[in-house]
Amino acid sequence: MGLYELLFRPHRHSAAIAKERLKIVLAHERAGRHAPDFLPKLQKELIDVVCRYVEIREDMIRVNLGKSGETSLLEINIEIDGAKPILAPALGLAGAATAGSRAKSG
Amino acid sequence: MAKVVVITSGKGGVGKTTTAAAFAAGLALRGHKTVVIDFDVGLRNLDLIMGCERRVVFDFINVINGDANLNQALIKDKRNDNLFIFPTSQTRDKDALRREGVDRVLDELRQQFDYIICDSPAGIEHGAITALYFADSAIIVTNPEVSSVRDSDRIIGILASRSRRAERNEPPVELHLLLTRYDPPRVAKGEMLTVEDVKEILSIPLLGVIPESESVLRASNTGTPVAFDSDSPAGRAYLDAVARFLGEQREMRFVKPERRSLFRVLFGRA
Q: I need a surface site. Which of B7, B210, B212, B214 has the fewest CB within 10 A?
């Protein structure tokens, strides 16, 4: 580090860091706040079912509860790109890139 | 119609009891019949802050259990005829604060008072939830500091989902942000979150800013609600907040560093 940088290094105030950190952590916590209790269990059972047909990892399933106008939307995204089919080529999943499935509730 | 106001924060030590005492005193000074209730069962402190610790005979739990009637437990403030203190019990039984009992006592208080100020304990356990459950209005006491802001956000979420108004699908609890222990010189140096930062993060209306002030400790030392000390910056800031709560427009004071005169620098603070 040169003398110039040492003397004129842009100094970031700690309050600005606090604000940034708070915004990130609260965005995360607010998103989780309205999730109903059954979502983690649903996600786990879905993984179990899908795993019977294709090899997927836990992070390849995303379960979200959102809102679209008056209706609640349960959105399930299962990424199976490159996932190996386990038994049945007859399932027709081999060529599919992403399967998105939407189910309405409430 | 009486209004139930909870003073809450999630985090401890941010100034809930100081605020409850000051706010109740401020409302009483404005001519409203006001009672301030301590919900911190087992850790009674409102009586000390209000300066009536030697006058406690019966408490909130006694009244809930029917061992005493309301007027035996209410303590009338010696400085203002409109102000009453309702102390809590020192029992270690934390379930003593039964919701049906609290509901019944609040109904009885509604007949006599304009404002019922509920001083919540810290945390998000039974006592804190009971304190906010019946609220019409909530004052969220927040320090300009990360853990306090985060906990306030949590409490705002709980008010929106677990209050009686939320359960009954009634209009939501009215939310007010009160920023306490604000230190304008440190804010100016970029060492402390600004009022605007906290407002933006929590996105609820700002009721007031209470500056860090020597008068707060002095008030608690002597058992005087700081709003009775109208010469002190904190006292005046609380009176402003009360006025805004009652619907008046007041400019925010004490948010910029005070210019200290040479006289004050040389001869100490007035």
A: B214
Q: Which residue type sits at A41? A: K
List of chain B residues whose C-beta atoms are within 8 Å of the C-beta of residue A18: 145-146, 193, 197
Locate tokens 């079912």: which residue? A49
- The confidence band for B269, taking pLDDT boundaries of 50, 70 and 90, is low
Report chain B residues whose CB lies below 8 A from the CB of A26. Answer: 150, 153, 201
Q: Judge contact between B75 and B36, C-beta under 8 A.
A: no
Predicted structure pTM score: 0.80
CB nearest B190 (choices: A15, A22, A26): A15
- In angstroms, the separation between the Cα of residue A62 and the nearest Cα of chain B is 24
Contact between residue B252 and residue B179 where contact means Cβ atoms under 8 Å apart: no
Tokens of B153: 């956000």
Interface probe for A, chosen from B192, B199, B203 (most Cβ of A below 10 Å), is: B192
Longest Cα pair distance anywhere in chain B, in angstroms? 61
Tell me which DSSP letter residue A68 carries: E
Taking only the tens place, the pLDDT of each residue in B25-59 is 999 999 999 999 999 999 999 999 999 999 999 99
Reported ipTM? 0.85
Interchain CB distance below 8 Å, B190 and A21: no
